[in-house]
Design brief:
With 156 residues, the chain is of the alpha+beta class. It contains three helices and five strands, in the order E-H-H-E-E-H-E-E. A five-stranded antiparallel sheet has the order 1-2-3-5-4, covered by helices on one side. Helix 1 runs antiparallel to helix 2 and helix 2 packs antiparallel against helix 3. The chain is globular and about 45 Å long.
Length: 156
């Protein structure tokens, strides 16, 4: 078992930018599988998220935040057909806000109700569940080019 030392939790009301990172997406045709480099970028966004939250003394939120980042970044890479994705993490008014922007206006995705046999289609349901469990919310920007999730830092 690995033990990670964490700094004391900063005040949840302290507003701060924690992370802003952009990466390029390989061009591909519809239906073509993701390039390996794009799949590696999703893993890198998970790693950066965890590291930044641990550094800020917010390690108790890392598992939920990493799950949300994984789902939102994967959706952006798979479905946007854009060429760049930007992940930002901020603290604002007692919430951790995760924003993934792909720059491609699109229709608003909604959580699906997949069958047990389906291999895909659960990502936004997971994001919604995590947001609900953390007394937060999630949504899509007005133009559909970004998806966000807020997780309350202090659950009473």
């Amino acid at each position: 078992m690995t033990t990670i030392g964490a700094r004391p939790l900063r005040s949840p009301k302290a507003d701060a930018g924690l992370l802003s990172h952009s990466f390029q997406i390989a061009e591909r045709s519809p239906g073509q599988p993701l390039a390996r480099i794009d799949a590696l970028q999703v893993a890198e966004m998970r790693r950066l998220t965890r590291n930044h939250l641990v550094e800020e003394g917010l390690s108790c939120y890392a598992d939920d935040a990493v799950l949300v980042v994984s789902e939102l970044v994967t959706n952006a890479v798979q479905h946007s057909h854009g060429r760049e994705v930007t992940l930002t993490l901020t603290l604002h008014n007692g919430y951790l806000r995760i924003n993934v922007h792909d720059g491609v206006p699109s229709r608003r995705p909604t959580p699906e109700n997949p069958c047990d046999e389906d291999e895909h289609g659960r990502g936004l349901l997971l994001v919604q569940t995590v947001a609900d469990d953390r007394r937060g919310a999630w949504g899509i920007s007005n133009d559909g080019a970004g998806t966000w999730c807020e997780l309350a830092l202090a659950v009473s």
